[in-house]
Design goal:
heterodimer, A: alpha/beta, Glutaredoxin, 3 domains, 5-stranded mixed β-sheet, two-stranded antiparallel sheet, B: mainly alpha, about 5% strand
């Protein structure tokens, strides 16, 4: 930590401190650490997001620095060949990783030399992968300044730490490195020019719309649109989607014991996963829709057999849906809902 | 002859139907009341939780000192040294209701205590609420749907959770007021009668008196009006239903001190004024349209629209500038967090910290509205076939409330009536179709003997008249005089659709199965509701019970502690605790508190939070500067009570750190994890909350095993330097400490001897020589 501060303020540092520093570490090494940092800074500057592409020689030179090194560094293990596998979502994680990097550098312009972001490609740097003992992806590792043994001393990011993408990665770095990350700056979905354009478009469109509205032939007068909208809002809410948005829950988790398996349902009523919510929301909604179908549409059908077959299917589906929800609820919450029969009946 | 005879059974039928519905409603009322009595039967007749204690205290004051003193009451028992103006900061509806109830009972020579009246206010109003639901649903879809909805509402768990006997809180009367206001609005809309519109404004006034949730009404009704205008449903009835509500309602609302000028100054109310302007413009347009020729009208429209747009733009710009100039854009934090759900978690920890402000997961819906969640979509669709003013309101109500409930679990309460109305409509329609299918296809009936056919026809006719009537009522409702004539017409005309209607049936056996399944669903709902009322929502949380293999355990530690405070401390002593226990301390111990559940002053709460998160000496200084004599902490580690102060501690840190930046959350976390075992950070192990909670804890079992966190505590043996333990309840759930008096400046050895003596517990409260 001492060296680290000295270096950061190297320009205005007291000569005495430098002297001590030089006495402690061989001069040549100190020079090389300086040169590496300036090289890394240059690379960092060249990269638009601040993520440096790491190669085996560069890694070797970094590792050759005496510990404690003057910076933390974060390594994203990438493999182009696996980008096509959707369940690993490597491209997403990589963009999120670069988002963390660019946010860190914009938030802390004075700490650029304290934390470096690297990505490393499997095809060209297999030996580095072996050095870290990385055999499965996605994998992100934080290497603290004091790390000597890369396998033991570096800290791998858990699946839970990148489950909420950039935000949770930033939290992870913050808690492990004691560097303040600041908020993650996501690029806005619409730029300012687009906003201005949309406003103008709306302003121009309003009078025409009003004219149509008075005439009474817009989509707004179509009650089916409203019906679909109301049902959708209902589905959206009962599925707990707001919970997923506010808590930024993932759609599913990877099983801790067996990473090839996916967990869709989370036990415990205080939490839910995205896919789980939508599945149950669908079950909630489908029963009502089927009931409405029977009472409003099916009664108008003239063919008796069609009516009979449809009704049996509808009843079966509804029954199974209700049963499934009751089962899932009991499993998730662990409540034992029971009736109060007279004790003599038991 | 036949013509004379037929109306007779019909009127008899009607009369019988009416009597039966009144009887059913009565039973529903009794049921709604009695299902809420589990808490009294299982525990005792006692006020529950936190806020109700404050309401109870206010009611006591009201009944003792009268309304004028209540209005001017400045309470110096809370928020020391600031105090609180109760009359101007409280929603008086509930208190006035219970006070009036008590007064009436006393004048009738029924000597009930104020507490008893308070305990049973909520169940009584739940019965009223279910009747109001009947009225509202009847206006939307007829009597059958109304009765079903009322029965569903009587036992919907979400509402039970806020209205069991003893849960003496604003929502208890507010839900009734909410439904009743909606009913009167729909009634005014359907009849176009100014009488109902005026009543509506008064009901709205009662709602404003009762609950902050009135903003839901004053935004929902304008939304509905706007919707009607946009979809081309404007009528003079709409104007009559809406305009008086805005004028009278706003005037009345500003009479309530807690609302006051907010009724015209905050953004929550702007929507109603904007729609008020729009409806006038639209009314004018319709009026002019009726006066001039279509060509002239077209010219006028282009002229007015172009001029109007410019004026509107200017007004809007000014309005936006005005609103944007205030930091929260004129919206209160709670409303903002509804519009932007992520708002609270980012900016207002005090709102985000309350458990009932969290977003719910899907099991919450199953717990709180149970099988209604399945039926609502059917109800929504039924409301669209046919769509009327009233049913469009019901749809809007369910859509908005279900969205809000998705943001905050507490607003599930507003969703519950809407869900009941929708499910009532769905169930009643489904039963209608299925029973009809069975009735006309039963082997005995289907043989077309003339007598049977007549009978069936008669019944059918009744049915048709009813549906026709309701459909008609949904469309154009003419004035009362015309209505009778219309009815006659309908009755005469109804023979024609009878034939058409008869075809709309489903296969017999499938209908029987369907009815059986629906009844099963209903039965499941009843079982669930009774279970929820009995097990989940009846705990008063002031008395706790736990069932273990060796029988029932009762934990009455809270009252024990408050009793101790009442009997063993001076009347003017100040007690500090986390804000959750403020109301209870003032109500039950009658001692002054620093902060309470009315979280109006964030800085003050942050001060207490900072003291709790500071080391002993710093905490002592903070408390001493606030004149605090006693500090109360709630500790669940011995008996496994999970909602204790250690579990709430991170919020104290967060809220404290929000105002005093030297308190930093990461200092209390080890690698982002909150822990109190040997891995805990030194800041955590040295903070006041840790010390007060775990002082002498190791003496209980020798290991210091915390049964809530399921771990051994990190620091077991330590002494307190600035606080002394004065009382710990039977199960250690409440621990009370006294601030040690400042030490005299004595040099040398005598100092040590002194400090030893003071660390021993002594019964005499007067330690300070200056006393």
């Amino acid at each position: 930590m001492a060296i680290f501060t000295t270096l950061a303020t190297a320009t205005s540092v007291v000569p005495l401190l430098l002297l001590i520093f030089n006495l402690l570490t061989p001069l040549a090494l100190s020079l090389s650490s300086d040169s590496i940092i300036s090289e890394l800074s240059a690379l960092q500057f060249q990269s638009p997001t601040g993520v440096i592409h790491l190669t085996d020689p560069l890694l070797r030179r970094i590792l050759a620095l005496p510990t404690p090194r003057p910076f933390h560094f974060l390594l994203f293990f990438d493999a182009q060949s696996l980008h096509s596998k959707a369940e690993l979502s490597l491209p997403t994680l990589k963009t999120e990783f670069s988002l963390v990097s660019s946010s860190f550098y914009t938030n802390n312009p004075d700490q650029k030399a304290l934390l470096f972001f690297f990505d490393i490609e499997f095809q060209e740097s297999q030996s580095s992968f072996a050095l870290f003992g990385v055999s499965s992806l996605p994998h992100i590792r934080l290497i603290p300044p004091s790390a000597t043994d890369l396998k033991k001393d570096s800290i791998p990011m858990d699946a839970s730490d990148f489950s909420r993408l950039a935000e949770s990665m930033a939290e992870f770095i913050e808690s492990r490195s004691r560097l303040s990350m600041g908020p993650v700056h996501r690029p806005p979905i619409v730029s300012k020019k687009q906003i201005a354009f949309i406003t103008v478009a709306i302003l121009i469109w309003t009078p025409f719309f009003l004219k149509k509205l008075i005439a009474g032939n817009t989509v707004l007068q179509d009650k089916n649109i409203w019906m679909a909208g109301a049902i959708f809002v209902y589905f959206f809410s009962v599925s707990g989607a707001m919970f997923n948005i506010i808590r930024k829950m993932p759609m599913f988790l990877l099983d801790r014991n067996d990473p090839s398996k996916l967990v869709f349902f989370y036990q415990g009523s205080g939490m839910q996963l995205g896919a789980e919510g939508f599945a149950v929301g669908f079950l909630y909604t489908i029963v009502g829709l089927l009931l409405a179908f029977v009472t409003h549409v099916l009664v108008r059908v003239k063919n008796r057999t069609v009516q009979r077959v449809t009704m049996i299917i509808v009843l079966l589906v509804s029954f199974l849906a209700v049963k499934q929800v009751v089962f899932l609820d009991n499993w998730k919450t662990g409540y034992g809902i029971h009736a109060y029969w007279p004790s003599s009946w038991q | 002859m036949a013509a004379l005879e037929t109306p007779q059974p019909s009127t008899l039928r009607h009369a019988f139907g009416n009597v039966l519905s009144i009887f059913v409603l009565l039973l529903i009322g009794v049921f709604a009341f009695s299902i809420r009595l589990f808490s009294v039967i299982k525990y005792e007749s006692v006020i529950h939780e936190f806020d109700p204690y404050f309401n109870y205290r206010v009611t006591q004051f009201l009944t003792k000192n009268g309304i004028y003193d209540f209005w001017n009451w400045f309470d110096d028992r809370t928020w020391y040294p600031l105090g609180r103006v109760i009359g101007g900061t409280v929603y008086p509806g509930l208190t006035l209701t219970a006070g009036t109830l008590w007064r009436i009972l006393n004048t009738l020579n029924i000597p009930l205590s104020v507490e008893t009246v308070c305990v049973f206010t909520a169940p009584i109003f739940s019965a009223f609420a279910s009747w109001a639901t009947y009225l509202l649903t009847k206006e939307v879809k007829g009597v059958g749907a109304g009765l079903t909805a009322a029965a569903l509402l009587a036992m919907v768990p979400s509402y039970i959770s806020r209205s069991v006997a003893g849960s003496y809180d604003n929502e208890a009367v507010a839900i009734f007021a909410l439904i009743f206001t909606f009913y009167l609005y729909i009634k005014a809309l359907n009849t176009g009668s100014l009488f109902y519109a005026t009543l509506n404004a008064i009901a709205y006034f009662y709602m404003v008196c009762s609950w902050g949730g009135y903003t839901f009404i004053i935004n929902l009704i304008p939304m509905h009006v706007l919707l009607c205008i946009v979809t081309g449903r404007y009528s003079s009835r709409l104007y009559i239903a809406y305009a008086p509500l805005v004028v009278l309602g706003t005037l009345l609302a500003s009479l309530v001190p807690v609302v006051g000028f907010n009724a015209v100054m905050t953004s929550e109310h702007f929507a109603s004024f904007l729609v008020f302007i729009i409806i006038h413009v639209v009314a004018l347009v319709y009026y002019i349209k009726g006066m001039i020729s279509p060509q002239m009208f077209k010219v006028a429209v282009t002229l007015v629209v172009s001029v109007g747009l410019i004026v509107c733009g200017a007004v809007l710009a000014v309005l936006i500038a005005l609103v944007a100039s205030s930091p929260t854009k004129g919206w209160s934090g709670r409303s903002l967090s509804l519009l932007d759900p992520t708002y609270a978690s980012k900016y207002i920890p005090i709102i985000a910290s309350v458990s009932e402000h969290q977003p719910p997961t899907w099991p919450s819906y199953f717990m709180d509205i149970n099988v209604l969640a399945f039926l609502v979509p059917a109800g929504i669709i039924a409301c669209f076939l046919p769509l009327s003013d009233a049913s469009s309101f019901a749809v809007l109500y369910i859509a908005t409330s279900v969205y809000f409930s998705g943001v905050m679990v507490r607003l599930m309460l507003v969703l519950a009536p809407a869900a009941c109305i929708m499910s009532g409509i769905a169930l009643s329609e489904a039963f209608g179709v299925f029973t009809r299918s069975i009735k006309f296809q039963l082997p005995g009936v289907s043989q077309n003997s003339p007598v049977n056919a007549g009978d069936a026809g008669n019944v059918m006719q009744n049915d048709v008249v009813k549906t026709e009537k309701s459909e008609d009522s949904l469309k154009e409702r003419p004035s009362r005089k015309n209505k009778k004539k219309e009815k006659d017409k309908v009755e005469r005309a109804s023979v024609v659709p009878q034939i058409e209607k008869r075809l709309l049936v489903l296969p017999l056996e499938a209908s029987i199965i369907a009815i059986f399944l629906l009844v099963l669903l209903g039965a499941f709902y009843v079982v669930h509701c009774v279970w929820a009322a009995a097990e989940a929502y009846s705990a008063p949380s002031i008395v706790l019970t736990s069932r273990s293999h060796d029988g029932l355990h009762v934990f009455d530690d809270f009252r024990e502690a408050y009793g101790w405070l009442r009997h063993n401390t001076e009347v003017d002593d100040k007690v500090a605790s986390w804000w959750d226990y403020g109301y209870q301390t003032t109500a039950m111990a009658n001692r002054t508190v620093i902060v309470d559940n009315n979280t109006w002053n964030n800085t003050h709460i942050a001060t207490v939070g900072t003291a709790m998160s500071s080391p002993e000496k710093a905490a002592w200084e903070i408390f001493n500067s606030l004149d605090v004599k006693y500090v109360l902490v709630v500790f669940g580690g011995l008996v496994g009570y999970p909602s204790d102060d250690i579990n709430k501690f991170l919020w104290m840190v967060r809220i404290g750190g929000g105002v005093f930046p030297h308190i930093k959350e990461p200092d209390y976390l080890r690698d982002g994890q909150y822990r109190i075992d040997s891995q805990a950070t030194p800041t955590m192990l040295n903070c006041l909350m840790y010390k007060l909670s775990y002082y002498r804890f190791v003496e209980t079992d020798g290991k210091g095993f915390d049964r809530v966190r399921n771990t051994e505590i990190g620091k077991k043996y330590f002494k307190l330097t600035h606080f002394e333990e004065v009382f710990t309840t039977h199960h250690w759930m409440v621990r009370i400490y006294k601030l040690k008096p400042p030490k005299n400046r004595i040099r040398g050895k005598t100092k040590k001897a002194k400090s030893k003596a003071s660390s021993k517990r002594s019964g005499t409260p007067k330690k300070n020589p200056w006393h």
